[in-house]
Amino acid sequence: MKLVVGLITVLMILGVSELGQATPVLWEANGHYYEALAFPSGITWDDANTLASSSSYLGMMGHLATITSMDENDFIINSLGGASILNGYFLGGYQPAGSPEPAGNWQWVTGEAWLFANWASGEPNNEYSGAAIIDPPGDWWLISEEVLHFYHGEGQWNDVPLTSGWGGLIVEYEANAAPVPEPATMLLLGSGLLGLAGLRK
């Protein structure tokens, strides 16, 4: 088991060139830092959530970004490379299993209130049509969409399947953050990502 986890960690380290290396940027309005991590060969939401929640910066714990205002949304887009660069990057929004589709019970990984949304036109729609870097296994066109990412280079949001893989993630760092690991994370790959995060920071 240790050998397998070690091999996965090594593979993730070899892929570190895929990660964004810029220093996290401070949004003075809330005192939080934000960082975009690129995965050109794709990363799933579960693995992105594991990586974000095991990262730290200046003593602050990370989590997938939770966007609670248009000002915050605009800051992330404008400070981390622009809407086209961040197209497909995962955010910290998800629907727990059994939620009413397509728009019911969206939540943030931090547990903070879902009071703001920036959905693209026609979203969320719970209708996956392909185009992920990593397509969900099986009959992916029948799979529901229950996690959140930036969409089509406009800084708006889209719902996608939990098991689809896209090009990156946005990490938010804040003092006293208490990320909630939802949905359930794959333990094995999560262990590898934890090792990688420890080496990054």
What would CATH call the homologous superfamily? Mannose-Binding Protein A, subunit A
Helical fraction equals: 10-25%
Number of distinct beta strands: 9
**In whole angstroms, how far apart are the ends?**
25 Å
- Beta percentage is 25-35%
- What value does the Rg take, in angstroms? 16 Å
CATH topology: Mannose-Binding Protein A, Chain A
Which regions contain 5 or more consecutive residues with pLDDT less than 50?
1-17, 184-201
What is the CATH first-level class name?
Alpha Beta
Please tell me the overall pLDDT: 84
Largest sheet: 9 strands, mixed
Shape label: globular
Number of domains: 1
What does this 3D model show about the protein?
By secondary structure, the protein is an alpha+beta fold. The chain has one domain (18-184): Mannose-Binding Protein A, subunit A (Mannose-Binding Protein A, Chain A), CATH 3.10.100. It contains four helices and nine strands. Strands 1, 2, 3, 4, 5, 6, 7, 8 and 9 form a nine-stranded mixed β-sheet that branches. α1 crosses α4 (187-200) and α2 (45-53) crosses α4. The relative contact order is 0.26.
